[in-house]
């Protein structure tokens, strides 16, 4: 088993990349496992946050398994392509907020898996990069599109064209990662962040994520229509009624979430 799902806290799931002997180099089998795990998580209405972590202290993920690909001809590489696209797309399309915890190397497809998440927590020991142009490739897990949305076209071009590695401090300065923590603390910090997120309304979290994703590439007028739909989804839910009641009663809310979304 190269991927496993754990439940470290209420409403929080952890998707663990678990191929430490290969530093989580993504094989065809592991890509399929990521897709299957994400499908399971996407169907879980009790979730508010998904963490993406690694069982290896040395690496989050070093990208595609080039040892496996060494024997590929063009037909084999073409056959693997939809499997990989499905895996990255499955992470990107998870309906709840996602947080990647990056410690050690996150290169190529590994960095792209992190970029598929909404937030990235990196430790000071993290090393990130998209080295594909150095081996005759172009990033194919969303890297050319997701990185530019985080850091802008010029900074993305620098990293893409040079294929250079950057340390965690530079990645944080560029905006490629969101939070920087001491070495070895990425998972703990990501879990703390996930707990904070999970304390919010499940309905509102899902609606807010959809508004962010669907509106980001639209003109302002169209994006505000997307936002209004998200507002309506939350505003006319049991969670909104509970949230306002809890505020006025000065107590923690008891969210009903997706189980009562139609109320």
From TrEMBL:
Record keywords: Lipid metabolism, Lyase
Family matches, as Gene3D superfamilies: 2-enoyl-CoA Hydratase, Chain A, domain 1, Lyase 2-enoyl-coa Hydratase, Chain A, domain 2
Pfam family, one: ECH_1
Classification via InterPro entries: ClpP/crotonase-like_dom_sf, Enoyl-CoA_hyd/isom_CS, Enoyl-CoA_hydra/iso, Enoyl-CoA_hydra_C
SUPFAM superfamilies given in the database record: ClpP/crotonase
Transmembrane segments: none
Sequence similarity: Belongs to the enoyl-CoA hydratase/isomerase family.
Protein name per Swiss-Prot or TrEMBL: Enoyl-CoA hydratase-related protein
Lineage of origin: Bacteria, Bacillati, Actinomycetota, Actinomycetes, Propionibacteriales
């Amino acid at each position: 088993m190269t991927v496993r799902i754990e439940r470290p806290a209420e409403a929080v799931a952890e998707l663990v990349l678990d191929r430490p002997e290969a530093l989580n180099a993504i094989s065809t089998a592991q890509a399929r496992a990521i897709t299957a795990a994400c499908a399971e998580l996407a169907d879980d209405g009790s979730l508010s946050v998904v963490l993406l972590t690694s069982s290896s202290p040395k690496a989050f993920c070093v990208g595609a398994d080039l040892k496996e690909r060494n024997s590929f001809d063009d037909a084999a590489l073409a056959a693997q392509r939809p499997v990989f696209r499905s895996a990255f797309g499955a992470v990107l399309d998870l309906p709840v907020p996602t947080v990647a915890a990056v410690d050690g190397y996150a290169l190529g497809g590994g960095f792209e898996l992190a970029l598929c998440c909404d937030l990235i927590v990196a430790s000071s020991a993290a090393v990130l990069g998209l080295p594909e142009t150095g081996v005759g490739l172009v990033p194919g897990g969303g890297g050319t599109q997701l990185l530019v949305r985080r850091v802008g076209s010029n900074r993305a071009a620098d990293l893409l064209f040079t294929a250079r590695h950057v340390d965690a401090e530079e990645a944080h300065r560029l905006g490629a990662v969101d939070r920087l923590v001491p070495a070895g603390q990425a998972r703990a910090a990501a879990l703390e962040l996930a707990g904070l997120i999970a304390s919010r309304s499940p309905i509102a979290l899902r609606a807010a994520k959809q508004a962010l994703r669907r509106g980001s590439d639209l003109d302002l007028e169209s994006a505000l229509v997307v936002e209004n739909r998200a507002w309506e989804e939350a505003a006319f839910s049991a969670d909104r009624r509970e949230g306002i009641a809890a505020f006025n009663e000065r107590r923690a809310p008891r969210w009903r979430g997706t189980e009562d979304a139609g109320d």
